[in-house]
Structures are given as C-alpha cells and as structure tokens.
TrEMBL record:
Domain Ribosomal protein L9: start-end pairs: 13-40
Gene Ontology molecular-function annotations: rRNA binding; structural constituent of ribosome
Species in which this protein is naturally found: Streptomyces malaysiensis
Cited HAMAP family: Ribosomal_bL9
Family, as annotated: Belongs to the bacterial ribosomal protein bL9 family.
Name of the featured protein: Large ribosomal subunit protein bL9
Lineage: Bacteria, Bacillati, Actinomycetota, Actinomycetes, Kitasatosporales
The keyword Membrane is annotated on this UniProt entry: no
Keywords: Ribonucleoprotein, Ribosomal protein, RNA-binding, rRNA-binding
PANTHER family xrefs: 50S RIBOSOMAL PROTEIN L9 (PTHR21368)
GO biological process, one term: translation
Pfam family, one: Ribosomal_L9_N
GO cellular component: a single term: ribonucleoprotein complex
Gene behind this protein: rplI
Amino acid sequence: MKIILTHEVSGLGTAGDVVDVKDGYARNYLVPRGLAIRWTKGGEKDVEQIRRGRRIREIATIEQANEVKARLEGVKVRLKTRAGDAGRLFGSVTPADIASAIKDAGGPDVDKRRIEVQSPIKTLGAHQVSVRLHAEVAAKVGVEVIAA
C-alpha cells in the first residue's frame, strides 16, 4: 500500500515521503496513529505542504544540530514522579514526560517523537535517553528520576 508519511517514522522515512508498506502495517499502525495518510492523487498535493512544514520545524544543518546537542547535554534533567517504597514507579516515564522535563530544566524545546528510550524507565535513579536532532546527530541526555 502506498502511503504519505505525516511524521518521521524510524526506519521508514520522514514527513512528506511517499513509501510503499505492507497493507496491515499501514492500516493497523501508521494511519490510526496519525503517522501517515493513504496515498491518493489529491493527497499528492499535500506532500509539498507537509515538506514545507517539516523544513520550518526541522533543524536544517549539522552545525545547528551540534549547537542544540551541546545545550542538551549540558542540561541536568530531574523528573519527579510517584514511586513505591522499593523504588519502582507507578507506571513508567514517557518521552512526553522527558520532553517537558528538559524544557523545565532550561533546555531547548524537543519534540517527544525525537526522544528514544531504549527500555522502559520504571525505576528511580539515573537513566540515559537519546534525542535524534538530525539524521547524523543524536544527543545523549541523562535523566534522573526522583520520588515526588
């Protein structure tokens, strides 16, 4: 099935790309989550608008990405959340929580979809997450989860 990506999808493409994927993947995952729309001749006209919006939001050069990376890696991110006596969290820390904690700590505004958490954060303590800033630049951010 041919689809038009509306957001960046790891391993598939960026917003505005027209890609061919399996029918079930598009129908059951990408389209319901708003990551893609079905390709039509009318939808092809929307591709340029999606790409224009992406260029405005996107970090354009590697130099800009490295500047943002330096700012991100210099920020101390502390996230307060509820936890039990043994240090286990009630739930887990989401990329949206991390993005708001980065902004609260004085860091740059980061899109939650660019934050990659290797394994779910379900305990108190220090954790590492990766933030994809550019196709070639990723920042490692230390997140300290503390009890509220």
